[in-house]
Design goal:
With 705 residues, the chain is α+β, with helices and mostly antiparallel strands. The chain folds into four domains: 205 residues, no CATH class; 194 residues, no CATH class; 133 residues, no CATH class; 142 residues, no CATH class. Helix content is 50%, strand content 10%. The strands form three sheets. The protein has a six-stranded mixed sheet with strand order 1-6-3-4-2-5. A hairpin with an 8-residue loop joins strand 3 and strand 4. The chain is flat. The mean pLDDT is 87.
């Protein structure tokens, strides 16, 4: 590595070309940065007589393979924003000078001097003629400006705006002073040796704060920078550019895609922090083979997965029933994206998920999200849940597999039952739910191809919200009108969609039906029942509520899955856990170990009705047959035992059992259990095994039922 301070005009002297590699970002500077750069030029002009000049910053670059005698070509590692901005300013300065012609100040520089020193290699041809080559989108625009041609059909907006700003500023400036300021610029010229320096490490060091660079930017640089220039260009065009196009103007969605992609590949269920996505990717990527062919395979996987991710998150390149299902789910949140990506792979790659099954799978995810929202269940930790589901799905990712896994979720994240969903839908205040509008819109359009456009509609309370109800409403509701109003106002049966909310207002029910645009004329399917009623009170609202709840249960259904399959999956998980640990490796005293070995030899022989599964944790050993029936917690001089028995039903002639509910907690226990036992001596074994057998038989009977 060589690093010296050098006047900028010397840096680009002769037949020299700098190019921005494909792994770098496009030009990103806006008006604020360009105006700051303009001020730097002004300060440089003021210091024109200073021997040290005005320091502009560092330019880091490395040799290109396309360097020949009389022509040097450098790949820019750092400094592209300043270099591009300076080039745009120079083009603007040249053009203003051309426009002025002979009418300008004779001290002004010559336009051809700017061309020959800063913009063009006059003795080269083709692409070699320009001193700066940008990335694809930006380069076409810059080339047109340098050559004085019409701008392309879709020019780089930031480059055009920077050029127009500098034209405006130059028209009010002293051009010779601006030129002196440019000539007085000094840079830290940092030239890397491709053979002894690591450009990627230098780049990371220069950008260690992550300023202005997204996690996706870092990943792109890391993946492509190690390749030869020709391979960089090919792989960028064939893979990376297509990914960037998918996520264009999508905010942090691209960073989130990389986070979910890596989690899917590694089986992670802990969400990487936003500022750790690149490092997580780098760790995963670095563990793989890094040859050119391997990189291309990985980029192919990335592009394919990005297409799946963008189809869900952004609605890209998808239509039909599949698109509808994705839209409905996306309205409820984007956290299922990692699971949707997994299901897409089963649909498109392994073809183990036919399109009808794929649509149903997405609808199940929608049902899960909406049911939990209506039931008021917690939403924190959803990403981990969907990552865990993605990890749990078998390789084939079948619909049945998904149903089984959804049915096995823990109590905190369970799939709400029909009963729970029904009770929540019949609550007094459905209106307060954040998903109230999506709920009504899906109820309106489910099961038909002739969709009602509800985008301009609002939620209408058929019985008005006004606590001071008009007399006509009080008379219709009866003597207990206040109780009816309080109970049913925000209930599902009293809510609908309309484009005439302000027109309806607090009008009597009959007027709401018969006015222009009223319920009698409404094309909204939710209003069919309403217009058939002669009055609107508790009975009518309750009947409509029942109808809508029945429809909701059909739209957002529970997973229909065989309980035996769920049980088999649970057992398989237990067996996997069992294989991962050895109970004899748990740290125990000699006394506890002796007691445990004697107890264990009896417990593992409790079959043959069902296999006993033994799982060793850090401080406990748990037994399943197939459900939990015993937990052993070693102490210094004894064993504490938890049994899955109701204390009131235990047959305990020895009187050794204690009620678990009478204890605040049992240290290190991972299960609840109804009965607590203490094994202090080997002579206790017979009595203890008698109670353990009761727990085992109870579990076996429950499993059979």
């Amino acid at each position: 590595m060589q690093a010296i301070n050098r006047p900028f005009n010397q840096l680009i002297n002769g037949s020299t070309q700098f190019f921005i590699p494909v792994f770098q970002r496009d030009f990103t500077w806006g008006e604020d940065q360009c105006r700051q750069f303009w001020q730097d030029i002004g300060r440089s002009s003021s210091n024109a007589n200073s021997p040290s000049g005005h320091f502009l910053g560092s330019f880091v670059y490395v040799d290109s393979s396309d360097t020949s005698a009389g022509f040097t070509r450098w790949m820019v590692i750092d400094g592209q924003q300043r270099l591009t901005t300076l080039t745009i300013l120079l083009v603007a300065l040249r053009d203003v000078l051309v426009h002025l012609g002979t009418s300008g100040d004779p001290n002004n520089p010559k336009p051809e001097a700017i061309d020959g020193l800063f913009l063009k290699n006059l003795y080269e041809t083709g692409d070699r003629q320009r001193k700066l080559i940008l990335r694809r989108t930006d380069d076409e625009t810059l080339e047109c400006l340098i050559e004085g041609r019409d701008l392309p059909t879709s020019p780089s907006e930031r480059i055009v705006k920077a050029y127009e700003l500098f034209i405006q500023l130059l028209e009010e400036a002293s051009l010779d002073l601006v030129y002196k300021g440019i000539m007085g610029l000094v840079v830290a010229d940092v030239r890397l040796d491709l053979h002894s320096d690591n450009p990627q490490l230098v780049f990371e060091s220069l950008n260690s704060t992550g300023v202005d660079l997204s996690q996706a930017d870092h990943i792109r640089n890391f993946v492509l920078m190690s390749l030869a220039e020709s391979e960089q260009n090919r792989m960028y065009e064939q893979y990376w550019r297509k990914i960037e196009v998918l996520f264009r103007e999508a905010g942090p969605a691209l960073d989130n895609f990389f986070r979910d992609f890596i989690a899917l590949r590694t089986g992670a269920t802990t969400q990487a922090r936003n500022d750790q996505i690149y490092q997580t990717f780098k760790n995963w990527f670095s563990a793989l083979e890094s040859g050119s062919q391997d990189i291309e395979l990985i980029l192919g996987e990335l592009l394919q997965a990005a297409q799946y991710y963008a189809a869900f998150r952004l609605g890209r390149n998808i239509d039909g029933k599949l698109a509808d299902a994705l839209v409905h789910t996306r309205r409820l949140g984007d956290t299922p994206a990692i699971l949707i990506m997994k299901l897409f792979a089963s649909y498109r790659e392994s073809q183990s998920l036919p399109e009808p099954d794929f649509v149903e799978a997405i609808e199940l995810v929608e049902s899960y999200l909406l049911r939990r929202a209506i039931c008021g269940f917690q939403t924190r930790g959803y990403w981990a849940i969907f990552a865990g589901l993605s990890k749990s799905l078998q390789q084939d990712g079948s619909l049945q597999n998904l149903k089984v896994e959804l049915s096995r979720l823990s109590e905190s994240y369970k799939f709400p039952s029909d009963k729970e969903f029904t009770n929540a839908l019949k609550a007094e205040n459905v209106y307060r739910f954040q998903v109230c509008r999506p709920l009504l819109e899906r109820l309106e359009n489910a099961g038909t191809n002739e969709l009602t456009d509800t985008s301009g509609y609002s939620i209408e309370h058929i019985m008005p919200q006004n606590k001071n109800l008009p007399s006509a409403w009080k008379a219709m509701l009866g003597d207990d009108w206040e109780d009816v109003h309080n109970r049913y106002l925000h209930s599902l049966g009293n809510l609908t969609l309309t484009g005439y909310n302000s027109t309806y207002s607090d009008r009597p029910f009959e007027e709401k039906k018969t006015i222009s645009g009223g319920f009698n004329e409404s094309a909204v399917r939710l209003n069919r029942y309403v217009r058939e009623q002669r009055k609107w009170g508790a009975q009518e609202i309750s009947q409509r509520e029942d109808q809508l709840v029945e429809k909701a249960l059909h739209i957002w259904s529970q997973p229909d899955v065989d309980a035996d399959l769920v049980k088999q999956a649970q057992i398989q998980d237990l067996r996997t856990l069992s294989a991962d640990g050895d109970p004899l490796e748990i740290n125990m005293s000699e006394t506890a170990k002796s007691l445990f070995e004697a107890l264990r030899s009896e417990v593992i022989q409790l079959g043959p009705e069902s296999e006993v599964i033994e799982i060793a944790m850090e401080k406990t050993v748990t037994y399943y047959g197939p459900d939990f029936f015993l937990e052993v917690i070693p102490r210094r001089h004894r064993l504490d035992l938890l049994l899955s028995l109701d204390f009131g039903e235990v047959d305990d002639p020895s009187g050794i059992a204690e009620d678990r509910d009478q204890r605040n907690f049992v240290t290190n226990a991972t299960h609840h259990g109804g009965v607590v036992l203490f094994m202090n001596h080997l002579k206790d074994l017979e009595s203890i095994i008698s109670l353990v057998k009761q727990s085992f038989r109870s579990v076996a009977i429950s499993a059979a039922d």
